[in-house]
Structures are given as C-alpha cells and as structure tokens.
Design brief:
This protein is α/β, with parallel strands linked by helices and 215 residues long. The chain contains 6 helices and 7 strands. It has a domain of 138 residues: Rossmann fold (3-Layer(aba) Sandwich). It is 34% helix and 17% strand. The chain has a 7-stranded mixed beta sheet, with helices on one face. About 12% of the residues have low confidence.
Length: 215
C-alpha cells in the first residue's frame, strides 16, 4: 500500500514537472560522454593523417571544435565538425571565432550515423569501440579510396590499422580507405615451373614396382 502511494506521488510529480518545463523534444541523445582530446593528442592525430592543403577534414563527434579548429589554423584546410549537442556547437563556433578561422570551419548539428561526409579526405574520431565498429562499414562505403581515418584510443576490430602511434599513455590509429577489390592491383603472376617439375612431367616418370616381400 505504502509503495503504491509512493509511486503515485512520484508519477504525479513527473507530470507536474513535464507540465512546467514542457516535453523533452530533443531528437538526439549523445552516444558518448564528452571527453576533450588533449592538445598534444590533437597535434599527433593531425600529424599522423599527413594533412595537405587540399584536404577536407571531418571530425565526427567534434565537441568544442578543437580538432576542427586546429586543422584549419595549422594547415589552412576546410574542416567540418559533426556534433549532436547544440551547446557544444555554440561553444565550437565561438572558439572558431576567437581563433580567427570561422571562414574555414563549419559545425553541423547532425547525427554521425546519418550525416553526409562523402567529400572528406580525412576523418577524425574519439568515440568508443562499439561506435567505431558501427561506423566502420559506413566509413568504408562512403569515403573515397586513399582517404584517411584517425581514431584516438579506439581501434576498428578486424579492420587492422595501417599505423599505430603512442602519445604518452594514449594510442592513436590510422587507416587508409582501400581500393575496391575490382580496382586493386593484381598480384604478380606466379613463376612458371621448369618443364620437368610440371604435373604432367611428374606423371610421366615411370614408377618403380614395389619390392617383393620374402616369405
């Protein structure tokens, strides 16, 4: 009886709170808790990606925009941050303005699993192992061959990295999007066997009769 009354009061309280604040209309919830990447790791990630002036960088889960801003400021590239949290988007935009790179960067409030980043030549991540595995097929299907993916701390399971680097106690990984199988270079032809080693030649060699077994 007492438990039932407590539940009723709790439900009534929730109803009053909803009436006061309005329903929760957020379309997305962050998949990970925001954890800023240390500055020296940001620098190492950009260095590992070997960024060139013509690159376009996307940071999936861009937080306060530090990777996007560092790429634009250090290399002069166009960079885009994809982030689901509107407050972090506002903070990133303000940080870009203070850094003087607002004309080079863009921050979009979008879900990383539905956002369009087909034009990216570099993608940076600091998400989590499960999210990396979920993103893996989309990254490989969306990005052009030769695009680079750099992840802070989390790998991609069976998709082995092309390079791994330690930054203090942290680890960063680099993958390059491979060519489709139909366009990948063919392996060199096998060296032909000498005539006397071919299967036909070996078959033609007379076989010795088995030795007689004495009784």
């Amino acid at each position: 009886m007492a438990a039932g009354l407590a539940l009723a009061w709790a439900l009534a309280g929730c109803a009053e709170l909803t009436e006061l604040l309005g329903p929760d209309t957020r379309e997305h919830e962050p998949d990970v808790v925001y954890d800023p990447t240390p500055s020296r790791v940001v620098d190492a990630m950009l260095d590992l990606a070997q960024i060139k002036p013509e690159d376009v960088l996307y940071d999936l889960g861009s937080g306060d925009g530090r990777i996007v801003i560092a790429a634009a400021k250090r290399y002069g590239v166009h960079a885009v941050g994809i982030e689901v949290d509107p407050e972090l988007i506002k903070r990133a935009q303000e940080n870009a303005r203070r850094a003087g790179v607002e004309t080079l960067v863009q921050f979009r409030e979008e879900d990383i699993f539905t956002a369009d980043y087909h034009d990216a030549t570099v993608v940076t991540l600091f998400l989590g192992y499960e999210l990396n595995l979920k993103l893996r097929p989309r990254l490989r299907a969306t990005l052009a061959p030769g695009a680079r993916v750099v992840s802070h701390e989390y790998d991609m399971g069976l998709w082995k990295p092309d390079e791994t680097r330690r930054v203090g106690r942290r680890t960063i990984y680099l993958w390059r999007i491979p060519l489709p199988p139909a366009l990948a270079p063919l392996p060199p032809p096998a060296t032909p066997l000498p005539p006397f080693q071919t299967p036909a030649a070996r078959e033609a060699i007379p076989k010795e009769a088995p030795a007689a077994v004495p009784y």
